[in-house]
Amino acid sequence: MSNSRDLILGRVRRALADVPKGDTPYEQDVPRDYRERHGERTPAETVELLAENLADYRAIVHRTNTAELPSTLAGLLAARGARTVLVPSGLPTDWLTGVEQVPDRAESTPYELDRVDSVVTGCTVAIAETGTLVLDGSPDQGRRRITLVPDHHICVVLVPDQVVDSVPQALRRLVPERPLTWISGPSATSDIELERVEGVHGPRTLEVVLVSEV
Length: 214
Description:
Blueprint: H1 2-15, H2 26-29, H3 43-56, E1 60-65, H4 69-80, E2 84-87, E3 100-103, H5 110-114, E4 118-121, E5 125-127, E6 132-135, E7 152-158, E8 163-164, H6 167-173, E9 181-183, E10 188-190, E11 196-198, E12 205-212
Protein name: LUD domain-containing protein
Domain LUD: 101-211
Region (Disordered): 19-41
């Protein structure tokens, strides 16, 4: 492993040998003057666009408020028949009631995660124009694998605070060094005959709860 690392780093050093020490860093040298969104929208219209694009990707969209969130989640889990729910360490304790909560542990095996009925997480940002949810491993989102192994994922999005119009706007809220997971609908792929298959490399069912303050 050390030899491979040294080989790669050596190649990088040789490639950079003729770069002046005062050269403009890449992130400053590349112009960022492209359009950040398409059209003007109010926050409410941005949330509506997010809901529309989430549904277009076959995510199931629900709406509620902070006071009704616990009962909404309880209803969704009951309808699914979920008895065990994987819970990130930082998920608000009052969100879930009446189910067995399975903690997000580093030592959990994929087989253990696969036996869990559902997982509930928050999110970092939701992108309206692409219908994409971004998780970054924050305490209310947990390790990346907990949203990839269980078959049912409920993601809670606080609106309008966590919703942006476009990918460029989302990037400004993200820390590149964090473990980012970009989710556009349930996991799906197609074979050579374009037969859609869901749940290949992630949950078959994605439910998104858009939560407003009132």
